[in-house]
Amino acid sequence: MTASASQSKKLYIETVGCQMNLLDSELVVASLRRQGYELVDVPKRADVILFNTCSVRQHAEDKIYSALGRLKHLKRRFPNKIIGVLGCMAQKDQGLIFQRAPYVDLVVGPGQLHRVPELIRQIEQGSGPKLEVSLDRTAGSRQQVAESFVSYDPLRDPQMRPTPYQAFVRIMIGCDKFCTYCIVPKVRGPEQSRPPEHILAEVRQLAQEGCREVTLLGQTVNSYKYRQGERSVRLSDLLEMIHPVQGIDRIKFVTNFPLDMTQDLLEAVRDLPKVSHYLHVPAQSGSNRVLKRMKRGYTVEQYREMLQRIYETVPQAAVTSDFIVGFCGETEEDFQQSVELVRWGRFKNSYIFKYSPRPGTKAYELYPDDVPEEVKRRRNNELLEVQNQISLELNEQFIGQEVEVLVEGPSKMAQKHADSTTGPIQLCGRTMCDRIVVFEGNLRQVGQILPVRIYDATPHTLLGMVVTHHVGPELYVLR
Ligand code: 5AD
Ligand code: SF4
Q: What is the pLDDT of residues 396-422, one digit of tens each?
């Protein structure tokens, strides 16, 4: 081991939650690496142990509190190790985290992540525990609260991205929809769109560094709106601005809010060839009574009308959805309406969640969590089964077809049995409409876009073979 390697400080980070959290972790890691930290894969070997947390469901929080519990003895034996809790649960629980785990040194909300390196330095110098969070949504004017949530978008280091060919790009932070079950508007603050020039500069830089696919991120990404003098730049305008960037071959965006799925956006998706025909537009429920209690702002008829508009404008669209089962007061009849919507919607995939009451939300205050756990579980399984059947039918339509796959790396199975870095290996990648494809290839092909012929399908995966285009017959004769 070299002297510098043995001296460098070690960082361990665990991330739960959404793509926004993955991006936040990537950026925090990059900023700490710049300060000389090196990543390790067990907390025992680390000087700084960070958890980037999620608050959307109770289960995600429980996981973090039990992981913290497991560190109690380690911290007692090595009191100089720094333990930090970042992200949504840090913003939600704040000082409560120090009460539940008194050996935690650092609590930082998602709107203050830019301060992490500096706060760690202060703790190293003996400052004692540090808490840095944004203002509560009712603790000041909208502007004051918004200013306390800072979008964390430092320039990235190309070598530090998890995959060099793909990148998340944040285009907005926060959410103003206030669905009654959801903690996000509270912990991620007011909706704020980033200036289009900043986004464009980031995409250009990523392209120069060899990135081929960007995924634009926002809690309600299609509500993106940036006022420039008289006019507003919308997501459709932003897509048009990014589209000409050389080197970028694919553009995706998540997550969409149904009422903001405007015609200009659908036409941009249809007309800009680099924009993926993959649209994640959560419905949450198929029952008007439940949608009203959720305060989603639309009826199931409006959702269906929107879906029809998607399929009319972009016939090849792969639409995915989220559903919550067992929301307060959900009857069997309400639930069956969700089943009907899944059947009717022909979603590529649906993410299904059991309702989890979140202190700090309107639903928690207003409605009892009255659907028993076993009923939630049964509804979850039933809806999943209906969706899986549809996913399989849709995937089977690809059998015999050739698709273009951006190769991401070894498949999960190949990672488990990794023993060869030169021979053939099972690779995995995604089509333009976000379908996962596994096929045999070579590690050199990672980062390429390859033609793959599909020969089999499961609900969530297509199985294929790389197409090698042979030399045409005339040339063949000449040889
Ligand atoms: N309980 C269960 N699921 C939830 N989601 C958001 N809040 C809750 C909650 N309290 C789900 C929604 C959202 C997805 C990211 O998480 O379906 O779209
Ligand atoms: Fe939560 Fe609703 Fe905002 Fe989505 S739109 S983040 S579900 S409040």
A: 999 999 999 999 999 988 877 665 556
CA 303 to chain centre: 23
**Residue 470 binned pLDDT confidence (cut-offs 50, 70, 90):** low
User: Residues lining ligand 1, CB < 6 A?
Assistant: 56-57, 181-182, 282, 284, 322, 324, 353, 355-356, 358
pLDDT digits (tens, 9 = 90+) for 32-55: 999 999 999 999 999 999 999 999
CATH number of 402-477: 2.40.50.140
Q: Do domains 161-276 and 280-396 have the same CATH topology?
A: yes
| pLDDT tens figures, 220-260 | 999 999 999 999 999 999 999 999 999 999 999 999 999 99
For residue 91 and ligand 2, the question of a CB distance below 6 A is answered with no
Question: In 58-189, where do the E strands start and end?
Answer: 82-87, 106-108, 130-132, 166-170, 172-173
Q: Kindly give the pairing relationship between strand 318-325 and strand 425-430.
A: unpaired
304 C-alpha to ligand 1 centroid (Å):
20
Mean of pLDDT values over 98-120 = 98
> What digits encode the pLDDT tens for the residues 332-390?
999 999 999 999 999 999 999 999 999 999 999 999 999 999 999 999 999 999 999 99
The residue to mutate among 88, 183, 191, 220, having the most atoms of ligand 2 within 8 angstroms of its beta carbon, is 220
Is 200 in contact with 228 (CB distance < 8 Å)? no
- Does residue 177 have its Cβ closer than 6 Å to ligand 2? yes
184 CB near ligand 2 (under 6 Å) = yes
Spatial separation of the C-alpha atoms in residues 323 and 128, rounded to whole Å:
43
Ligand 2 mean position to 282 CA, how many Å? 10
98 neighbors 104 (Cβ within 8 angstroms): yes
Distance CA 290, CA 299 (A): 10
CA distance 130 to 124: 11
Ligand 2 pocket residue status of 367, Cβ below 6 Å: no
Task: Indicate the top mutation candidate among 56, 338, 369 to test ligand 1's pocket, ranked by most ligand atoms within 8 A of CB.
Answer: 56
Give the CATH number of domain 280-396; options: 3.30.750.200, 3.40.50.2000, 3.90.190.10, 3.40.50.720. Answer: 3.30.750.200
Residue 165: burial class (beta carbons within 10 Å; 0-12, 13-18, 19+):
buried
Specify the CATH number of the domain 161-276. Answer: 3.30.750.210
Report the CATH architecture of 10-146. 3-Layer(aba) Sandwich (3.40)
Q: What are the domain boundaries of the chain?
A: 10-146, 161-276, 280-396, 402-477
Q: Is the CB of 179 under 6 A from ligand 2?
A: yes
pLDDT at position 476 over 80: no
Q: Which of 256, 321, 353, 369 to mutate to test the pocket of ligand 1 (most atoms within 8 A of CB)?
A: 353
